[in-house]
Design brief:
Layout (H helix, E strand, L loop, with lengths): L20 H14 L12 H8 L3 H14 L2 E3 L5 E3 L40 E2 L12 H17 L12 H15 L8 E4 L2 H12 L5 E5 L4 H9 L3 E5 L1 E2 L2 E2 L1 H10 L2 E6 L13 H14 L2 E6 L22 E6 L11 E4 L2 H14 L5 H12 L2 H28 L3 E2 L8 E6 L2 H14 L1 E2 L16 E4 L5 H15 L2
Parallel strand pairs: 3-15, 5-6, 5-9, 9-10, 10-11
Antiparallel strand pairs: 1-2, 4-12, 7-8, 11-12, 13-14, 14-16
Helix pairs in contact: 1-3, 2-3, 4-11, 5-11, 6-7, 6-10, 8-9, 12-14, 13-14
Length: 486
């Protein structure tokens, strides 16, 4: 039985008016119907309920309803109640759904330039920027983990407000994982749970930066991080990178010319190019951090997937006092679970928790403990092994499809790890044609300039392969080729 959330008539009803109360209610309800807020077929509140809401005698409501039934505005359905007449005079049988245009702000605010979003879930084939295939995740195991987490949280009284740093159980499991698999020694008090790696970057920016500070990034980079730094009032300075990672000499020059507060890196699989920062440059960068006093923000967003050799240890593993380490479990679980984490010295984590209190209070304790349950049961380890084999095959198949559809016109290296390719074009005009023809070819991807901060000049496409089956990837690349021929 469909009923409105609430009928608001009190502003039109007053005992001080000369018009009888029941007629005021009649006129007010007619106005609600004519204005479209009460649609044909909607049941009205009972006379007792509406009388209580309006603070009038129930007989007044009964009289108003009877009058409206007699006029044809309402229909009595006996014990089911009273509803707006299905066929009102001058009204269509199926009323059109009214939708107001989006409201514009009538006040000043800090506007930023809108950026395109590459969202899945459309009919178009989409190249994401390197996400896992959510279809491979065993949802029945996740459901069981949630049931265990709910039972445990209720038994231990953990459904109320808790630690803004996140579930202690999950922080303990992440500390164990980082120590065993990545050489990062961390106590649970060195860890703060976030809603994904982007929130981790934003919290780090709030903790570290003041207006006027300078942050150094690679000129091809993860630009949402640059946006977070600018939102904190910092200036973002891009420096070159090559096949061995960030140009550390350019970082030194930047430090001598500016007061650099932080250097942001994705050293394991550089975003978007996928190159790894070589050990010699890592050590030199940490020497510069000690010399000039800046923090290294290390975003290790997809450490789990490395296909050719043993992955390099995070920079945080040998300089925990200089590094804010940001990780995510989204690539192992599901992006929609929103589990990321910060690892840093205790005083930095305390400051991060204070920042979280101002924006989020705490995360979802049930989700966090469900993920801890998945780790405890070994499910994440098994899932990582299984999907790692699948993604390794998709990576090789994707490289073959790239060569078949784009031939020598595309320049790329098959990445050692990660879930995406960085593809450049010998002829820049071809990249422009692909952008122009994407809608016609029914293909979606992030635009090339979405990865660049000045003074970047190299352009390319970051094409995620892991979330597509081999057939889907081949079709997507075929459409990419078709877009270039328009």
């Amino acid at each position: 039985m469909l009923r409105p959330w609430k009928i608001v008539l009190s502003e039109r009803i007053s005992a001080q008016k000369d018009v009888p109360l029941y007629l005021q209610i009649v006129y007010a309800l007619i106005h609600e119907i004519q204005d479209g807020r009460l649609q044909p077929g909607v049941y009205l509140p009972s006379s007792r309920e509406l009388a209580k809401t309006l603070g009038v005698n129930r007989k007044t409501i009964v009289l108003a309803y009877d009058d409206l039934v007699a006029q044809g505005w309402l229909e009595s359905q006996g014990t089911r109640g009273t509803m707006v007449a299905a066929n009102l005079p001058g009204q269509p049988t199926k009323p059109e759904v009214r939708s107001s245009p989006p409201q514009k702000a009538e006040f000043r605010f800090n506007a930023v330039a809108a950026k395109p979003f590459v969202l899945s879930g459309t009919d178009s084939l989409t190249f994401d920027e390197g996400t896992p295939d959510y279809r491979l995740f065993p949802t029945e195991i996740l459901a069981r983990a949630y049931r265990e987490a709910i039972t445990r949280a209720r038994r231990r009284n953990r459904m109320r407000y808790g630690d803004p740093r996140g579930s202690l159980l999950l922080r303990e499991r992440i500390a164990e994982m980082l120590s065993a698999q990545r050489g990062v020694t961390a106590h649970p008090d060195n860890i703060c749970i976030t809603r994904g790696s982007q929130m981790g970057v934003s919290v780090a920016a709030r903790v570290l930066l003041n207006p006027g500070d300078t942050v150094v990034m690679e000129s091809l980079t993860y630009t949402p991080a640059a946006d977070a730094f600018r939102a904190a009032g910092a200036k973002v300075l891009g420096v070159p990178l090559d096949g061995d990672g960030i140009d550390v000499e350019a970082v030194e020059q930047a430090c001598r010319a500016h007061k650099v507060k932080a250097v942001f890196l994705t050293p394991h699989h550089q975003f978007p190019t996928t190159v790894a920062l070589r050990p010699k440059r890592r050590l030199r960068l940490l020497e510069l951090a000690r010399q000039f006093g800046f923090a290294v923000i290390e975003d290790d967003y997809d450490h789990e997937y490395h296909f050719e050799s043993q992955p390099l240890l995070p920079m945080a593993s040998y300089a925990p006092d200089r590094v804010i380490y940001i990780g995510s479990l989204s690539k192992l679980t599901l992006p929609s679970l929103r589990i990321g984490y910060l690892v840093a010295p205790v005083d930095v984590i305390d400051a991060a928790a204070t920042q979280i209190m101002t924006m989020d209070r705490q995360g979802n304790i049930l989700t966090e403990e469900a993920v801890a349950e998945l780790i405890d049961a070994g499910e994440l380890r098994r899932h990582a092994r299984k999907t790692g084999l699948i993604y390794a095959e998709r990576r090789l198949s994707f490289a073959q499809s790239l060569r078949r559809h784009l031939g020598d016109e595309a320049v790329f290296d098959t990445p050692d790890g990660g879930l995406a390719f960085w593809v450049r074009f010998r002829d820049e005009a071809m990249l422009s044609r692909i952008q122009r023809g994407a809608v016609r070819a029914d293909i979606r991807f992030a635009p090339p300039d979405s990865y660049a901060v000045p003074p970047a000049i190299e352009m390319g496409l970051r094409l995620g392969f892991a979330s597509l089956t081999e057939g889907e990837a081949d079709e997507a690349l075929s459409r990419l080729r078709a877009a270039s021929e328009g």
